[in-house]
Structures are given as C-alpha cells and as structure tokens.
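Now for a sample.
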Amino acid sequence: MNYKFVLIGLYIVFIYWLSSQEPALHALFYPTLGAFCFLFASRTFDARDVGRILIGATISSIIGSWLHQLYPSAISLFANVLIVAWLIKRFHWNAPPILAVSIVPFFVPQTNVWLIPASVSLSLLGLILVLACAHLIESKWREAPTLRRPIATEAE
C-alpha cells in the first residue's frame, strides 16, 4: 500500500472530524475532496501543476457560488457548467474534480457566498501541505544511505 494513500485517508478523516466539530466548518468536508486527494496522490508532485489545480478549483467554486447566489436555478447551474468547462479547457487544468467543486453550492446550503470557496481553498491547501511533506519525506528516504553490516576484515 502506498503511504501517500494512508496519509490522504488520515487527512480526509481529520477534515471530517474537524467539520463535524463546528457548524461553521461544515463546508470543509465535501465529496470532491476525496477525488482531489486521489488525483494529487496518484500523480508525481509538481508544485506548479498542483498550484494551477488549486487556483482552478478556487475560481470554479467562486463562479458556482456567485451564480447560485445571483439566481439559484437550473439556468445558473447550466451557465456554471459551461463557464467552468470552458475555463478547464482554456487553462489546461486537467482535473475533472474542478467542475464538480463548482456545483457544490447548488446542493449545499450556503449562508455566505464566500464560505464554499474559502472552504475549498483551505481544504486543498491542507491537502497540498500534507502531500508536500510526504514528498519531502520520500525524497529524503530515497537519498538516505542504507544500513549495512560492516564487512569483517581478516584481522578479526
């Protein structure tokens, strides 16, 4: 088993626990977080690529939140899907969960228009931090010399 998947599993459990402790933090836990976890853990860690996906997810959740706030209907949902799909193609974000995150405001009640985008950004930043630490540990572990038994000399 890949230890990155163990770490992301622990991260998802932590976010779930944290979101269940305080009603204001409830939006931190959303189903698409699991898809982002798998996406980030299954790729090689490239900070530029991961940063672009974080920006894309934040922008798409802002678009979805604002469109839902302006006119909560199937029309705004349709506009949201078209806009976000165009942005994904235009900026080569190559992460399908970005579109899924943009529709979260349409099925999760929101009290503030900024709540879901802030939650998406914070949860993904935490995920990136966890995976960056895992990447550093992995790279240091690969560079570490192996423990070997000393070779016996003839004098012994």
The CA atoms of residues 4 and 41 lie 6 Å apart. The radius of gyration is 20 Å. Residues 115-143 form the longest helix (29 residues).
